[in-house]
Amino acid sequence: MSDIRIATAEDQILLDKEAKYCSYGDTVHYIEPPRIFSRCEGSYVWDTEDQAYLDLQMWYSAVNFGYANPRLNNALKQQIDTLPQIASQYLHKGKIELSEMIAVDAKKKFGLDGRVHFNVGGSQSIEDSLKVVRNASNGKSLMFAFEGGYHGRTLGASSITSSFRYRRRYGHFGERANFIPFPYHFRGPKGMTKEEYGSQCVQQFARLFETEYNGVWDPKTNQCEYAAFYVEPIQGTGGYVIPPMNFYRELKHVLDQHGILMVSDEIQMGFYRTGKLWSIEHFDVQPDVIVFGKALTNGLNPLGGIWAREELINPKIFPPGSTHSTFASNPLGTAVGLEMFKMTNEVDYGAMVMAKGKFFLEGLQDLQKRFPIIGDVDGLGLALRCEICGPDGFTPDKATLDYMVEEGMKGDMVVDGQKLGLILDVGGYYKNVITLAPSLEISYPEIELGLKLLEQLLVRASNR
To answer: Chain centroid to CA 305: how far?
Structure first.
């Protein structure tokens, strides 16, 4: 095991400049000194000393299709040489065809007509969805959302994100959320199956509508004070928590009874992360709004958006000028998004991702048997979780996971003669969960390599 790594002289000059000139508001250094990276390809990034790191978080699932994916990069390059920019009040082919792909797919899967509205990223698209929802509900500004949920850090998005930390300095600007417990089975009541616990969580939510004195429902007018329920079908920042398969079907029944819209936040789990285009597809429900971003362009260009039911977004109810962004539906982003759809339609991405995820999960389950500090592992497709706990296998152990992350970034592990680092992401309610989001293009040998590197980190953590 190496000592603490010291920045090179060249890197230290840059770090000194960063400390003086860069806003700390958008800065999080998980290790000291932070690495400075110089190139990337596939599942790997290299720092300025040309040390390779296997990346198992892929820019928070923004780079689902691997770093420097040649096909997607070429789509961007070709668009630069033809129509690189155009004002958003003018039409271009990419916007129309990408909207069509998403809307036709939704019609096929959910049986619902709808339209697509673009913006420059996930949080901004959450803001647009809030406008659509509020407009359709006569201005209601109260929303339901989940404990452990994350929807972004713009003003509206942070208001429906469960962590008070993200809005502590700024207060509320319109939206407010009632945060409902998520069926986090590993930390739920003992003696219940996952499905039983899911049903219990729905029943606890449904009781809010039993009487007007529970604070959300007027039985005389059959109206709820809340406009929509914002869900991440699989929680992202909350620790890749995967709910029971019966949960959303039962929840949607309650929502439909009381005229509450379901907004599915697919920003982190969309575009085949879970083996389907949208993670909500696993749960046999019809969402009213879908919000997407991140991997639509494989991280090459900021582009996100929403799909909404026709009744919520048609031009009569949501007319021209209802919202706007200068760079929305920009041709560089839509070109990459179109190529991504073409690429994923040529092979069965769903089957491929599910097979790789099964293989990776089996490896994590094997590690769990051998290391008591792994309290829980789970996964759906290539959205996987590994919860690090104390010796009892249950008490959250953030300090040990922080240690593992730092050790992984030293770049001093050796597998088959190759010196490597390992990039992990930290999530979870107690910041003790490794949230694994490898490239969907990751090879089986690379999955085995990742498991070997994880094993080395677990040995170090167990022996320290």
So the answer is: 14
CATH 3.40.640.10 fits 75-346, yes or no: yes
What ranges do the domains of the chain cover? 9-68+349-463, 75-346
Band (pLDDT 50/70/90 cuts) for residue 159 is very high
Instruction: Check for a shared fold between 9-68+349-463 and 75-346.
Output: no
CA-based max dimension of the chain: 73
Chain-centre distance for alpha carbon 199? 25
60-91 confidence digits (pLDDT tens): 999 999 999 999 999 999 999 999 999 988 99
Two tokens at 322?
Answer: 């209802």
Tokens 């699932």, residue located: 61
Closest CA to 289 of 115, 439, 45, 67: 115
Measured between alpha carbons, how far is residue 381 from residues 76, 194, 294 in Å?
A: 28, 19, 17
Confidence band for 123, pLDDT divided at 50, 70 and 90: very high
* Residue 173 reports pLDDT greater than 80: no
43 pLDDT band (50/70/90 cuts)? very high
What Rg do the C-alpha atoms of the chain give, in angstroms? Answer: 22
Side by side, which strands form the sheet with 37-41?
A: 37-41, 44-47, 52-55, 418-423, 413-415
CATH of domain 9-68+349-463: 3.90.1150.10
- Residue 2 pLDDT exceeds 60: no
Encode pLDDT of 242-278 as tens digits: 999 999 999 999 999 999 999 999 999 999 999 999 9
Region 165-172 average pLDDT: 85
